[in-house]
Amino acid sequence: MSNQNKLIKIEELVVLLNEHFSSSFSTGTIVKLRNSRTIPAVDVRTPGTKIARWKYNFEDVKKALETSKQKG
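The structure assignment produced for this chain is given below.
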């Protein structure tokens, strides 16, 4: 479960991405990227819960964004 400790909420991810890329990501932008499967996310809902709760690994998201930036 060491990977579980690296998972962060969307608000923290937005702050880290804006600092790293000197850009203006928003939570809406992150949701769109997650829904289009451009960035990886982990569903951390408790068993029996219908509503998904997403968390992100900053390093994985950063790599995915850098890769998609090179392609596009």
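Interim note for the steering committee: The mean pLDDT is 91. The first strand starts at residue 7 and ends at 8.
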